[in-house]
Automatic annotation (TrEMBL):
Residue ranges crossing the lipid bilayer per the database entry: 21-40, 46-70, 77-94, 100-124, 131-151, 157-177
Name by which UniProt lists this protein: Membrane protein
Keyword 4Fe-4S set for record: no
Protein keywords: Membrane, Transmembrane, Transmembrane helix
Region called Disordered, residue ranges: 457-476
Length: 476
């Protein structure tokens, strides 16, 4: 969460507000601890019914406007609305059974997520897999705590979750404020200290180039849909495993969407991802020599260790790559990006052509390039007038939380074309925000009411005009 906020808001925006972020972080942390402790003795002082009403209202509004979404956004709104309404119903049910069901569902979600993270850490073995393994064990223990009845007999499940949410949110803000206090560049984008120092030098040496190549200020702050076909925009190309397979594939739910597809001959297809900008940058990393992806060797290749590093090759352009292979399956286009930061990232990244199936592949390259291009996107919409509204708008965007979870899965496992596709779609909704769904619905209703009133007024005018212009009756 911290890294994504640093990317989307930018270091300059956050550094100017580090004191307020620190204060808010400590306040949320203390409130969360208080709520969590209050739930331990079984005598709840927390207004749990009020939370139920908030969840019910939010869920109902989300379901009411879910039709306004497109594709994955519509499915996300349906899932969010149903989950909120179901949670509210269990809270209102109020007796032992409601609390029990809610505790089991939340606890199993924590346990499943922890087991998934632990398994991926042990299989992939990336550089910091031991840290991720520790967090996974903590998450499993938290899930077990939610499932077992001691000490509140399931009555404190919702306050536990709310308290934990406040604690983690406050801790994230404290860490964020501490990190951005003296930063001059964004480590969430540029990585380690050496890369950060290089980016600072790049900022100084390329300041004139960045100003010359900077895009003009965006005229809008929100859009009703994705960019038009003739509108300049950053494009993320994704070849899904199923869509890029040369033969008919076997059906494996979730696996062939996010990991790999296996055709009828046993050949594995992992798909591909690339990023293209109107300025001519094309990020598409591919192994210089085709890797044998037979089922026998595939498990060994999943290790993000240096012995699996092979020479890679950056493709020259989308036109050449698509002609030699096939057209991309899905495209995600984003208006609000910084070509100068993308150019600076690309000049440094392309110097290393190493390819690793799980640690440095096509999808991880695209995701890192996307982070660089979208650095400061949320604050850039408002320019020098960016205030706390930019932070609030970003936090209440559901796609931000989706991007956080996708990024977490990718970092602890591996970036795949499927995860990159979900990540790009989620970030596109934050960088190019849409109107609030409920506000859009209200505007449409008001517009329709005004149009109806205007039509009735016109009909009344015509009726009156027709009566006055009619021929008088003939005299006898």
């Amino acid at each position: 969460m911290v890294k994504l906020m640093m990317i989307l808001l930018g270091v300059d925006y956050l550094r100017n507000r580090w004191r307020s972020l620190m204060t808010a972080g400590w306040l949320l942390l203390l409130i969360g601890i208080g709520v969590f402790i209050d739930a331990l003795d079984g005598a709840l002082g927390f207004p749990i019914t009020f939370v139920g009403w908030l969840l019910l209202i939010e869920g109902a509004l989300t379901l009411a406007v879910s039709w306004a979404g497109v594709g994955g956004q519509r499915r996300l709104r349906h899932a969010k609305g149903i989950a909120f309404v179901l949670t509210a119903a269990l809270i209102f049910e109020g007796n032992h059974h409601g609390h029990f069901i809610l505790s089991i569902l939340i606890g199993l979600a924590f346990v499943f997520d922890g087991l998934l993270q632990a398994t991926s850490a042990l299989v992939v073995r990336y550089r910091r897999y031991r840290v991720a393994l520790g967090f996974a064990i903590f998450e499993i223990m938290l899930g077990v705590f939610m499932i077992q009845p001691y000490p509140t007999h399931y009555k404190g499940t919702v306050p536990y979750c709310i308290g934990a949410f406040f604690i983690f949110a406050g801790w994230n803000l404290i860490v964020l404020a501490t990190r951005v206090r003296k930063l001059t560049s964004n480590p969430a984008v540029w990585g380690d200290a050496s890369a950060e120092a290089a980016s600072v030098a790049g900022d100084r040496n390329d300041k004139r180039d960045m100003q010359a190549n900077a895009r003009p200020t965006l005229q809008a702050r929100e859009w009703d849909g994705p960019p038009a076909a003739d509108e300049p925009a950053l494009t993320v190309h994704v070849w899904t495993p199923v869509g890029s397979s040369k033969a008919e594939t076997q059906w494996h739910p979730i696996v062939d969407r996010y990991i790999a597809a296996v055709d009828l001959n046993g050949v594995i297809s992992t798909g591909h991802a690339a990023l293209e900008s109107p300025e001519g940058i094309y990020v598409s990393l591919y192994p210089a020599v085709e890797i044998d992806r037979s089922p026998d060797d595939f498990a060994r290749l999943l290790r993000a260790t240096r012995e699996n590093d092979v020479p890679g090759l950056f493709q020259p352009s989308y036109a050449i790559e698509s002609k030699a292979w096939c057209e991309s399956t899905v495209r995600v286009r984003i208006r609000n990006y910084d070509p100068a930061r993308l150019d600076r990232f690309w000049r440094g990244y392309r110097e290393d052509t190493t390819y690793n199936l799980t640690h440095r592949n096509c999808s991880s390259s695209v995701s890192r390039a996307l982070d660089a291009a979208l650095e400061g996107a949320a604050g850039r919409l408002y320019g020098s007038r960016a205030g706390w509204g930019a932070l609030f708008r970003m936090i209440v965007t559901p796609e931000l939380w989706v991007a956080v979870q996708v990024r977490k899965r990718a970092v602890t496992m591996a970036w795949t074309p499927g995860l990159t596709l979900d990540y790009a779609r989620a970030l596109s909704m934050v960088a190019d925000p849409r109107p609030y769904a409920w506000l859009k619905l209200a505007r449409m209703a008001l517009t329709k009411m005004r149009a109806s009133r205007r039509a009735w007024r016109d009909e009344g005018t015509l009726a009156q005009g027709g009566g006055s212009n009619a021929d008088p009756p003939a005299r006898v």
